[in-house]
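quick one: S-adenosylmethionine bound model?
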Amino acid sequence: MNLSHSKEFLKDDYGRTIKSLRMSITDRCNLNCIYCHNEGSTGASGEMSVGTISNIVHVAAGFGINRLKISGGEPLLRKDLEEILLALPPLKDVSLTTNGVLLRERAGSLKDAGLNRVNISLDSLDEGNYKHITKCKDGIFGKVIEGIHAAVDSGLTPVKLNMVLLKGVNGSEVEDMLSFVKQFHGDVILQLIQLMDFGEVACYHVDVDEVEKELELKAGCVQVRELHHRKKYLIDGAEVEFVKPVDNTEFCANCNRLRVTADGKLRPCLLVNDDLVDVSHASVEEMPELFRLAVSRRVPFYRKRKEM
Ligand code: SAM
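yep, here:
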């Protein structure tokens, strides 16, 4: 593929260079979590073809974007995910965010097709509670646990377990989750996520500063990652990351991500819906200009609350 824009980087008006792409490949999901924002889905029903996905990622790579996160909906509902992975250009990091329900059977083939690592959503280790959160049937929780083991065994590591903190639901389960993570000796990292309020979920809000203080007291070591200024704790051999997207100017200041919706629209920010740029029918020659347009629309969502 001849990409004349190669060597140009995409920088927005706030000095943020785009380094990663977060792409939804379907809006369909096999769970129905009580708090889910579904990546801010616009409810569109179309899905990109393997060719369109490949073109978008090739154009992104021409702009020096070398990290890709594949998400959904539930991305494993796409039977052609391995085909998608095989059609990608060489990148530094290709990861997948999944609920893990269908992972056991496909961890090996995904690794073989070029996937580097996975994030698996697991909000509770208590099966009854898991069923309450995800509204799933009997037997699903066990499949997710098997999926985590399969991901580790296939080398899709480090596996990150995404746990959204939910008041009155899983707030007291962080200790259990830490013990679970420890058994994998560094191959599994716990990622605690602050709930983003999309709709009727205010009742689940946890005071994350309290949780963070507790982690800080327990941790032997605290590091700060550049991406979204995430904090990372090491607690008795278990690694824990904290993702605090809400009301966090640093989250925006360090955001280097461009999103793509399942139907092929570039999305400058998860929290804004009216700034999408459609690339679904564009040729690879037309796409670079559309990327520049999308990046020119990037405005830090939390800038109004505090000067960046
Ligand atoms: N189905 C896949 C999964 O379960 O990981 C991918 C899509 S899901 C929307 C991606 C991630 O977003 C999950 O880890 C989920 O926990 C998180 N998420 C969904 N709604 C959220 C919210 N309101 N606040 C914070 N995180 C949320």
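Residues 140-153 form the longest helix (14 residues).
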